[in-house]
Specification:
The complex is a heterodimer.
Chain A lengths: L4 H10 L1 H35 L4 E6 L12 H8 L14 E12 L6 E9 L3 H4 L4 E5 L8 E5 H6 L8 E4 L2 E10 L8 E5 H7 L7 E5 L6 H10 L5 E5 H45 L1 H10 L3 H28 L5 E5 L6 E5 L4 H28 L2 H6 L2
Parallel strand pairs in A: 3-8, 5-7
Antiparallel strand pairs in A: 1-9, 1-10, 2-3, 2-9, 4-7, 5-8, 6-7, 11-12
Helix pairs in contact in A: 1-10, 2-8, 2-10, 2-11, 8-11, 10-11
Chain B lengths: L6 E14 L2 E14 L3 E5 L6 H8 L7 E6 L2 E2 L5 H11 E4 L11 H6 L9 H14 L15 H13 L5 E5 L7 H16 L4 E5 L3 H5 L3 E6 L2 E4 L6
Parallel strand pairs in B: 3-8, 3-9, 6-7, 7-8
Antiparallel strand pairs in B: 1-2, 1-4, 4-5, 9-10
Helix pairs in contact in B: 4-5, 5-6
Classes of the chains: A alpha+beta, B alpha/beta.
The structure holds adenosine-5'-diphosphate and magnesium ion (MG).
Chain lengths: 388, 234
């Protein structure tokens, strides 16, 4: 058995001030680290939740998103009438030919313009997205200049609220309803009649076709059918996969930002821990000599000081996570890099992030403590004892 | 009668010098002597005469230049560092001038420390610790931290820590050097009892004549050479 763990813990407790400061430094780094991971995770979750597993998104071959895509009317009709498409309650295929346009609208308060995604919908669009619920008002009437706005739009964009009106596509559009789509990307969209929007924006083609599969396990076969049809030049994706890909660039950017920021910050925290631990070793030189004289091996001394520093890191990690967890109360918006539209989402803490943040804080503790611990373990007993 | 007991420490031709810069300072020169089991030996001599150096060599925390040291039949000068640490845990009880207790550990935990190096169970350790603290008269201070104890009490905890493993030798370097007269007497009484009643072999460095009086045998070190004086009258 080595030197007991409570020896290391109590020594931290004894020097509360330096321990506190060192922990604060580490906590700050872990806070930044965890927050950025939570941001990336929140974004991913929002976009992934937007899709549903039974749905298929069809866009032009090679276009990464609906915004860049164009699906000709003829192609859209072929897809719509595939036998694999599920039928709706009225016997019609559960497929929606949609238009996606990006426009710039002023925000409430600041009047600063920001990109918003407008979706032209068909009668089946709502059936395909059961997570979308009308919270106020009604659906836009086909053939009219009426729109409905997602909650994030209604709250944050000027003229986006129920009963207000927005101007785009050289027309005024009356907001006749608002809808809530939970924490999905749809909450940051404006929906209107697809034919009206195509006229307004002078678009001859749809952006995408969305349909529900009759049998979700048949996806691969459906994909092959469309890929092999010489009349069609389209990409076929499960809706979940489509939205996950939308989040990847942004999430990767946030992760890289997080890693580089925390790498720089952590250098400071590690040096802080190192200074603390070197001071601890210097102050306890005689004690180290005593422990060695009693028969504890060099490795035990090394272990006790590394453990002390690991505790330091762990406490810093827990403190950082504690504060980062409050970030979950915050909803922020950012530009979705794939479509360049505004997207509202929240910081999301997961077990994976907790585990990564704690591992990272332990790593900082270890790096900060290992050199001082080596110094402690390498002292000659009689020299150490003379320090008293 | 004492002379018939076997020697527990055998020192032969022991030399030790320290390097100070480029200069080599000889501290001990060709020292040979035995210590018998149950002996209470006082090492005296002027400051800097090498008393602590000799004690540290016997206790296995310093390295000799040449010569041999056998303790309980084991040649310790050839042991590796790891073996030596293990050997110390079972064979040497240390008593220091400044007690050297671990400030963040209670009396019980300090005394238990050397037992963590044995294979005793938690319960057995607790029993040994309680016995040792009772022997030094501190059964009522078990959960006190060193900072809450007087110098004399701290030294008694240190003595409990030294005897708790029942080591072959107790080594004490000026154990009363930091204590007032009353506490010093208590500590010397305690060491005398450990020697008389429990048969502990004790080597004590001191320059306090009152402390040396307790010993059976006094050896004087002078410039690295040993002189044996008459046993103190008992
Ligand atoms: N680690 C060391 N390095 C250099 N010189 C030392 C060291 N330890 C002791 N000495 C020297 O060795 C001599 C004997 O020291 P020591 O054994 O402590 O004497 P004492 O205990 O009798 O006062 C002294 O001159 C001291 O300065
Ligand atoms: Mg000395």
């Amino acid at each position: 058995m080595g030197i007991p763990y409570y020896y290391s813990l109590r020594n931290l407790w004894t020097r509360k001030l330096t321990t506190g400061l060192t922990i604060a430094g580490m906590a700050l780094v872990v806070f930044v680290f965890a927050s950025l991971l939570m941001l990336a995770e929140g974004l991913r979750k929002t976009l992934v939740a937007t899709g549903s597993y039974d749905n298929v998104v069809v866009i032009r071959k090679g276009s990464k998103s609906e915004v860049q895509s164009g699906v000709e009317r003829g192609q859209a009709s072929i897809v719509e009438t595939l036998p694999e498409v599920a039928a709706g309650p009225d016997g019609q295929p559960l497929a929606a030919k949609e238009l996606v346009v990006l426009i710039s609208l002023p925000k409430r308060g600041s009047d600063k313009p920001s990109n918003v995604l407008i979706r032209g919908i068909s009668a089946t669009s709502l059936l395909l997205r059961p997570q979308v619920k009308i919270t106020e008002g009604r659906m836009p009437r086909p053939g009219s200049s009426e729109i409905i706005a997602g909650t994030s739009i209604a709250n944050r964009f000027r003229g986006g609220g129920m009963g207000e009106s927005l101007h785009f596509g050289m027309r005024d559009w009356a907001v006749v309803g608002t809808f809530d789509a939970g924490s999905t990307g749809f909450s940051s969209e404006i929906w209107g009649d697809v034919d009206q929007l195509m006229q307004a924006f002078r678009r001859p083609v749809y952006s995408s076709v969305i349909f529900r599969m009759r049998d979700p396990s048949e996806f691969e076969r459906i994909k092959r059918t469309i890929d092999n049809d010489p009349r069609l030049s389209l990409d076929v994706m499960r809706e979940v996969r489509y939205y996950e890909e939308q989040s990847e660039a942004m999430a990767r950017f946030l992760r890289i930002l997080g890693m580089s920021l925390t790498a720089i910050f952590s250098l400071g925290a590690i040096i802080g821990a190192m200074i603390t631990m070197y001071a601890a070793v210097a102050n306890r030189t005689a004690e180290i000599g005593t422990l060695r004289a009693l028969g504890f091996q060099r490795a035990s001394i090394l272990g006790a000081f590394v453990l002390e520093s690991l505790f330091l890191g762990l406490l810093g990690g827990l403190a950082g996570l504690f504060f980062a967890s409050f970030m979950q109360l915050l909803t922020i918006s950012t530009v979705n890099f794939q479509t360049f539209s505004e997207l509202a989402f929240s910081f999301t803490l997961t077990f994976r992030i907790i585990y990564q943040a704690l591992l990272f804080s332990l790593f900082m503790g270890f790096i900060g403590g290992v050199l001082p611990a080596f110094r402690a373990s390498r002292m000659k007993i009689i020299d150490a004892l003379r320090a008293s | 009668m004492e002379n018939h007991r076997p020697p527990i420490v055998e020192i032969r031709n022991l030399s030790k010098s320290y390097r100070r810069g480029s200069q080599v300072v000889p501290v001990l020169e060709d020292i040979s002597f035995d210590i018998r089991e149950g002996e209470f030996l006082a090492l005296m001599g002027p400051s800097g005469s090498g008393k602590s150096t000799l004690l540290n060599l016997i206790a296995g925390i310093d390295q000799a230049d040449s010569g041999s040291i056998k303790v309980g039949g084991i040649e310790i000068t050839t042991l590796s560092e790891t073996e030596l640490a293990h050997w110390r845990a079972f064979n040497i009880g240390f008593i220091f001038q400044f007690y050297n207790l671990i400030p963040v550990l209670t009396a019980v935990e300090n005394v238990e420390l050397p037992l963590l190096l044995t294979s005793l169970s938690k319960r057995e350790r607790r029993e040994h610790v309680e016995v040792a603290l009772r022997v030094v008269g501190l059964a009522d201070r078990m959960d006190y931290y060193p900072g809450q104890l007087s110098g004399g009490q701290q030294q008694r905890v240190a003595i409990a820590r030294a005897v708790v493993t029942d080591p072959t030798l107790l080594v004490a370097d000026e154990p009363t050097g930091d204590l007032d007269r009353v506490s010093a007497k208590e500590i010397l009484d305690l060491m005398g009892r450990l020697n008389n009643e429990s048969g502990k072999t004790i080597i004590m460095v001191t320059h306090d004549p009152r402390a040396a009086e307790r010993a059976h045998l006094i050896k004087h070190l002078d410039k690295g050479v040993l002189n044996v004086s008459d046993p103190a009258p008992h």
